[in-house]
Specification:
By secondary structure, the protein is an alpha/beta fold. It contains eleven helices and 15 strands. The chain binds nicotinamide-adenine-dinucleotide (NAD).
């Protein structure tokens, strides 16, 4: 479909779905945003009106399989992702699925089996940091040997406040998969074990208090991940890779600096959208380009990457409950997903 527009349905018109709709309606060429679907008709209608979209639906399976679309963005809650991906694949659609592909690695295997049966890679996963200029640059420098062999990675992920429905495990199953994928992507290494700790002194956050994870990689590297969903001050994602000859920090875009009352300050966004605006745009553009060209984007996350993140999260939840280090055992990587 090189010369044609890609007809898209967005399923789930919440914070992420609305942002995907904005990108497709206002920023990206070769797209016809035809359908907005949300369990709430009012919500779907309001986003459809905002972006001039003709069809409003409330049934996500109908939207994922409808004749009038080529591709579907799944931005409904985590537990709907795998089944909607499977429905869309069976109907011959391309899928951009928000992370996580599933919280169950078994469901990720079902997606991979179906993709292999179809014989084409049709699922791109919303690990958009792979497209973020800071991650791209750090990875490129690492591969060029700028800091020698990478031995440690420090990651932290902080939100202002957790949503009301957030419980402890979701720090591992919902927030941390971005960090798990970033570690695998930056280091080009698999995670083989995880330990999870919680600070006993923490009083803020209740069920969603901070978690601190230590991951080991196949090559023997160490990665620590702090997920703090109630950090209070802003949305803040950082990382530092430590190599044998130096270290590299990721930098977030800074557009202004405030000087007042004898202080200088940088401003934090309240959520992830400003920090990763360029990553989302480049991710969605790559997805559209890949559908039109028939070539999966070289470094986008696929269903295998979704499976790996889900396995790490599953082992993380077990480690949180057991208090011991948990091994991460993966199935053999299907040749279909490359070496
Ligand atoms: N890539 C990222 O950086 C990123 C950031 C935030 C969230 N996410 C992911 O995006 C997804 C959505 O997150 P959000 O923050 O937009 O949540 P949200 O709660 O703002 O939006 C979810 C929307 O889905 C709708 N919905 C619920 N069940 C549905 C169903 N069965 N069918 C259709 N619509 C349904 C809800 O009415 C709501 O409007 C989550 O899976 C989350 O993990 C990804």
């Amino acid at each position: 479909m090189v010369n044609m527009n890609v007809r898209i349905a967005v399923i789930g018109a919440g914070v992420m779905g609305a942002d995907h709709a904005r990108l497709f309606a206002d920023e990206l060429p070769h797209v016809e945003l035809t359908t907005i679907c949300d369990a709430s008709e009012e919500r779907a209608r309001s986003i459809a009106e905002q972006f001039g979209v003709a069809n409003v639906m409330t049934d996500p399976v109908e939207a994922a399989t409808s004749d009038g679309i080529d591709a579907v963005v799944i931005a409904s809650p985590d537990e709907t992702h795998a089944s909607l991906t499977i429905a869309a694949l069976r109907a011959g659609k391309h899928v951009l699925c928000e992370k996580p592909l599933s919280q169950s690695s078994q469901e990720c295997i079902q997606v991979m089996e179906l993709e292999q049966k179809i014989g084409a890679r049709r699922v791109q996963l919303g690990f958009m940091r792979r497209f973020d200029p800071s991650y791209v640059e750090v990875r490129a420098q690492l591969r060029e040997g700028a800091i020698g062999k990478a031995v440690m990675l420090h990651c932290f992920h902080r939100n202002v406040t957790a949503p009301a429905n957030f419980v402890g495990q979701m720090a591992i199953t919902n927030s941390a998969p971005h960090e798990f994928d970033a570690a695998r992507y930056l280091l080009d290494d698999e995670i083989v074990a995880i330990s999870v700790f919680r600070p006993d002194v923490a009083t803020v956050g209740g069920q969603a208090m901070p978690v601190f994870m230590v991951l080991k990689t196949a090559a023997g590297r160490l990665v620590n991940v702090e997920v703090n969903n109630n950090a209070g001050y802003g949305y803040d994602v950082r990382a530092e890779v430590v190599g044998e000859l130096g270290s590299m920090f990721l930098r977030a875009p800074v557009h202004s600096e405030l000087h007042a009352h004898q202080r200088a300050a940088e401003l934090y966004p309240t959520d992830w959208r400003p920090r990763f605006a360029e990553a989302y745009r480049l991710q969605n553009k790559a997805w559209i380009d890949s559908i039109r060209s028939g070539q999966p984007p070289a470094f986008a996350a696929n269903a295998w990457d979704g499976y790996c993140a889900a396995r790490i999260a599953e082992a993380g939840v077990t480690a949180l409950n057991s208090g011991t280090q948990e091994p991460i055992v993966l199935i053999d990587k299907p040749a279909f997903y490359g070496s």
